Every structure is written in C-alpha cells, then in structure tokens.
Amino acid sequence: MDVSVPRPAYRRILLKLSGEALMGEDSYGINRATVERIVAEVKDVMVLGVQVAIVIGGGNIFRGVAPAAAGMDRATADYIGMLATVMNALALQDAMHRVGLPSRVQSALNIEQVAEPYIRGKAMRYLEEGKVVIFAAGTGNPFFTTDTAAALRGMEMNVDVVLKATKVDGVYTDDPMTHPDAMRYQRLTFDEAIIRNLRVMDATALTLCRDQKLPVKVFSIFKPGALKRVVMGEDEGTLVEC
Ligand SMILES: Nc1ncnc2c1ncn2[C@@H]1O[C@H](COP(=O)(O)OP(=O)(O)OP(=O)(O)O)[C@@H](O)[C@H]1O
Ligand SMILES: O=c1ccn([C@@H]2O[C@H](COP(=O)(O)O)[C@@H](O)[C@H]2O)c(=O)[nH]1
What is the complex's ipTM, to 2 decimals? Predict the structure, then answer.
C-alpha cells in the first residue's frame, strides 16, 4: 500500500492576481469577503510549504487604457493604474495580517511611507522565511501591464511557475466572455498563444516567459480550491509552456 503523502508540484510560485478578481460580485473596487476568500486559498498553499510571491493587478480600480482614462496623457493614466495596484496590495496585506499570514508589500514606485521599495535580495529572503511577498506598482513603468510585472518578478524570484489567477478557467480559442462557444485548451505553447493572439495574457509577458522557459498556468480564482489543485499538479486550468 502506498502511504506517501502527495507533495506540491512547485516549490516557489508567482501568483498573478487579477485586480478584477478582488471585486467579487461588485462592479468596482475591493470586495472584502472576496479578498478574505482569496487569502484563505493562499494560506492553504502556504501550509504545504510552498513559497508564494504575488503580483496584483489594478483593473478593479483603474486601467490606463480604459474609457475612464480617455483623453488623458497615457503615461499619467498608467501611473494612476500602478497606484491602484498599490491600494490592492495594501488591502491584500491587511487581510493576510488578520488571519496571521506574514506578508510584505514591495512597490516598484517609491512610496516609502506606504510600502517598502522593491529590493530583489530582500524579497528572496522574505520568501525563504515563509512570508508572502506582494509586489505592487507593476513594473514601475508606464506602457506595461501587471502581467508583464508577473513575468519579470517571476523570473527575478526564480519561481517554478507563474500562476495567472483570473476570471476565466483557462485559455480559450477566443475570449470566452464574448464567445461562449470558445473551447478551452488543456495546454498550449507560448508561440501558439502569441500567433493566435489569445489575449488572456499580454504578448510582452508571454514572450518574456517563453524566452526564459518559465511556464504559465491560467486558472479561475473564482473556483473554490483551484489554487491548491494547481499547486498540487492536478488537472486545472491551462498550462502554457515552450
Ligand atoms: N483566448 C482567451 N482565453 C481566455 N481568456 C481570454 C482570451 N482572450 C481574452 N480573454 C480575457 O482575458 C481576461 C483575463 O484578464 P484579467 O482580468 O486577468 O486581466 P488583467 O488585465 O490581467 O487583470 P486586471 O483585472 O487586474 O486588469 C479574461 O477576463 C478573459 O475574458
Ligand atoms: O507595469 C505596469 C503595470 C501596470 N500599469 C498600469 O496599471 C494598470 C493596471 O494594471 P493591470 O495589469 O491592467 O491590472 C494598467 O492598465 C496600466 O495602466 C503600468 O502602467 N505599468
């Protein structure tokens, strides 16, 4: 009889949390119950000994390319978008603190009264100490996205995988929100995702991950227990790899 306990498939992960995932059923902002549920899911994988770094999006508050930003200088709109991710990061950290999950926020924009600056070595040490590191303000540069920040920080942190937690349960042949007949891939290559313009993740992020051979798993953060199933290597979401 095999009594071995199943072990996580990954030692260190970069979880990209869509800002919109924090809205829950609301149409805007941060839904407290939703944040608490996501934090509980993160805690479930931390107790398995998995090191967790998070890049948080800002789409629930502000997007540089959204209609709300129309007419604005693009770089200014993007800085507003990055500041939105800082708000999400603080809300996430607060919820982690309330359940005793140690975490640190590091910001790519200098905002030292609010969050530590991004320092790679320090972030690595926090991960080794079992703290969640939440990366805020994306890459710190306008004209980028938090998906690209996830690829970048994932590479810098030497993670095993980028887990893109979003509203849909994987990569589809077309946007499933607008094409209900679209089919989900179980796995596909970066080149296929880029050539077919499957916009679940932006092309810059996909290219970075492809070049560094960093796999990406796309899954739904709204599906209870999905994060743990992904971490345990179970069949969940879509794997994008070389
Ligand atoms: N081929 C595709 N397969 C799956 N999803 C797709 C595809 N094309 C477009 N999408 C859309 O991509 C979206 C993923 O975006 P998500 O909300 O995670 O965006 P984000 O910009 O990373 O996050 P944020 O909400 O923080 O701005 C899904 O809502 C989905 O509707
Ligand atoms: O590196 C970055 C990351 C983000 N932005 C701006 O922030 C918003 C919100 O990020 P999402 O990835 O859409 O969640 C984004 O639309 C950009 O305006 C940025 O400029 N640089």
Answer: 0.93
Helix (H) / strand (E) containing 13: strand 12-17
Indicate if ligand 2 lies below 6 Å from the C-beta of 41.
Answer: no
CA-based torsion, 230, 235, 240, 242: positive or negative: positive
Question: The domain that contains 94 carries what CATH number?
Answer: 3.40.1160.10
Give the list of residues 6+ apart from residue 93 with CB closer than 8 angstroms, or none.
Answer: 103, 104, 105, 134
Q: Tell me, yes or no, whether 7 lies in a domain.
A: no
Residue 1 banded pLDDT, cuts 50, 70, 90: low
How far is 11 from 157, CA to CA, in rounded Å?
12
d(CA 190, CA 204): 11
> pTM of the entire structure?
0.95
As annotated, the binding site includes: 16-19, 58-59, 63, 78, 139-146, 166, 172, 175
Binding residues for ATP: 16-19, 59, 63, 166, 172, 175
219-229 tens-digit pLDDT:
999 999 999 99
